[in-house]
Amino acid sequence: MDEKKLSVNNLVISFRTPGGKVQAVRNISFDLHKGETLAIVGESGSGKSVTSKAILGILAGNSIVEGGSIIYDGMDLLKVGEDEFYRIRGDKIAMIFQDPLSSLNPIMRIGKQLTEAMLLKGKARQKASRTAFNTTLEKLAAAMAAARPSEDAQKASQMCKNFDKFEIRHIELEKAYGEAHEAAGEAQDAIKDVLFHIEKNAFEDQKYSLKEIIRLAGGTVNEYVVTGKDAENLKKLLGELKSSMNGEIRKKEYPECVRILKELSGILEQALKKEQPDFSSMGCYLVDSGEPLPDLPVDQLNVFLKKYADEHFMNEFRAWMREALEYNAGAYNEKKKQVISAIQEQRGVFAGDTWDKNACQAAVSLLGKAVEDSIDPLEVEKDGEAYTFDETLRAAVRDYFEGIVKNRKAVALHDKQQKKYDRLKARGKDPAWKVPPSTAVDIGLIQDNVNGILDRMTAHYQERLQRAGQVDFAARMSGLEEFFKENASGVVMRITKSMAKYKALKLMEEVGISETRKRYRQYPFEFSGGMRQRIVIAIALAANPDILICDEPTTALDVTIQAQILELINQLKKDRNLSIIFITHDLGVVANMADRIAVMYAGKIVETGTSEDVFYSPAHPYTWALLSAMPDLETNERLEAIPGTPPNMIYPPVGDAFADRNKYALKIDFEMQPPMFQISETHSAATWLLHPNAPKVDPPRIITERIARMKSKGGAVNAE
Q: Rounded to an integer, what distance in angstroms lies between the CA atom of residue 136 and that of residue 148?
């Protein structure tokens, strides 16, 4: 779980309301790692869902993003435009909402809702793969030439051109194979559909259905899909099927039709089980040798092709790639040092209470260019902090100068309204409206944000430089090679309507829906709540996303169905290596599925740690309160409700927001917000009870007894 998939840094979000500005998210930070489930837990109104909607770019129109960044794939999601978000939303980051019925179109069949996104985004994905392949290969050629200045730079260029030729041939071969293989899957699906309707005595649109099967099955003949005697038998069966289409098939003729279809299905089933050839190595062999392929079974052919490609080209090409990566890393590390120096030199521009606009703009341009020049273009895993630095810093400085103007206007409006308010009060009237505040923007907070951006960039590059000697360039080279192959295959991918249906039915099976062909044609109201949520999960998985956000996905379901959906999400995470953000108000729901837990209250993260940290060593009184209210199978005592209500975030408290509801609150809790105290390498909490001078306070007995029981069993949190 070392690779970061998402990084939220110092996020601040408010909402404009008639009563004033509501501070919904207050300076929160967290990371999400590959293959990890991060649970965000808290009461309604704590800021959980606002955070998830900010990640997905679907905040309400009255929202104000006052600071911070959300880094994904080298982009700050708070800064990208809607055109770019269209490529990310649903494709890379998908979401499951609380109420499945509200997530589905009630007048559109389930099948169409499953296939819609696949069809819309297929072409965009192909174009992005082509661009990524070509631009990265061009940069690799330049780095290879620079890494070996004593050798002919022409050789580096020629090697990359040869690699490009091999991959073009690879794409042609894989495209032909893919079309035949997908046709086999689609034909198989169409046959099952017809057999299903014959079995149910509801075989309609016979000519269209059989014609579609003939069309699809005819496209399966390929050297590596349906070949040899299977191809001959398939053509014979298709001829028999064509002859039956001259007139309407009567019920007494169904058995013969079923026989033909089942034999076709058997041929296609065997074709779909065949091993796929190594088309990348095949492209290298065919172009480099100019010889026909040897007549070998696919498994032996793949071994032969890989050996040839490695010995005749790839081993040397990989050595050049590795040297290019090492050379680039060293060159760009020097530029990173220059960035650190440049930031220190420009610090004075962003010091003091007031800033000079021209000096700030010049500093932003200088630093942005320095960071841009320090980004190694051959790093497949993008450095989000560096990629978003210029835009993030520029936006923060712009907010500062715009905020000064807004504050001047706010002061004028406040003074005007205050005078009017005072006049009415002097006449004995009681105005129903409130005087607007004299400040519209917290200038100090914006200045802190700007300096925080500079601090983070400096610390980030210092850490990168410290780890420079630990980089595994062999692994980085393998990652770059895989990047080229994935994008070459991405150029081939094409989604047709029949292919989308085939994939949709497979998704429905994957999420545990039976009778998929029947369900595919149904409307949302014909499903139970649990089944609707399974459909929503299938839609979210349609584009094979990196990150899945689950926003209270079990709240609207009964306890038995909740357990099934949680088990399904856990299994999907394991099978697809998903990174999951799971949002809930119930700690018990995530007890056996979260790797890490962040507890939120009044817009802030008050405790964060591994699942074991939070359940076995809870440190914040709010976490204690959530655990005390959580039922389990062996607690006989009355569960404790959390007294009071969350604070009004139009007027956030000066100290700890939980203080008024906290029976363990200290005097300082009402006067100052606690910092995040580190308990261990994985565990932190924002409570003054962790201060060295604080009195010793133990968690409630209901919690300590539960922890003791769990430890005695050596085990898991036994929550319902």
A: 19
